[in-house]
Amino acid sequence: MRIMEYDEPTAERAAAFEEILDRALNSREMARELARPARAADRARLRASALRGRGAIEAAAAAEYAAYQEAKEHAAQRAPGLAQGVDETPAPFSRTRDGILPALAIVVPALSGIASVVFLVWGFVMSAVDGRHYVGGGLLTAGVVCACVAVGAAVGDLAWLLSAAARNRPVAEGTPSLAEDAEVGAARDAWERALLERGMLPFLRDGLGDPPLPHP
Known about the structure:
With 216 residues, the protein is mainly α. Helices cover 75% and strands 0% of the residues. The chain folds into two domains: 11-83 and 181-208, no CATH class; 92-173. It has eight helices and no strands.
């Protein structure tokens, strides 16, 4: 197993260190020691000392941290989209197509619906007022055709949306994140446990060996 150096601080390590420090200070052992009247001010001193000695504390769990990083790398290799950048820039034709299809999905039903209303209204008017039934009949037929086109386009749009949602659901819901990977979770737990038991608690015990701070 390769050794992971703590060369670059990360937000994840900083948050984990703060969490482990709070857990250690709130542990039964430390709480019992810090509850003594003479050590009322030692909690702040121990926290400050642990933050200054972070490098030495983290070094005690370096092997577990390396295993945690390797587990994340293995999980990323199993699902590359989780941690690796993938060039998802669409090609010009794909981008143009993706922009035209949604526009047509809106324009075609809307224009067909408007045209059907206009044809039907004028068809009824021409049939009732003008007396030229053949003109009115033609307009009514055109209106019915446009209405059928509008309904068909709307149904097609709905089917397209449902199929797109069904295709995207496995990507959005079926791919676990790195935090949900069992191997990654177990490795992180081992790292945090080693950081607590071999790094933080021994450091705080040594700090308690110092004379307690006097009350102000």
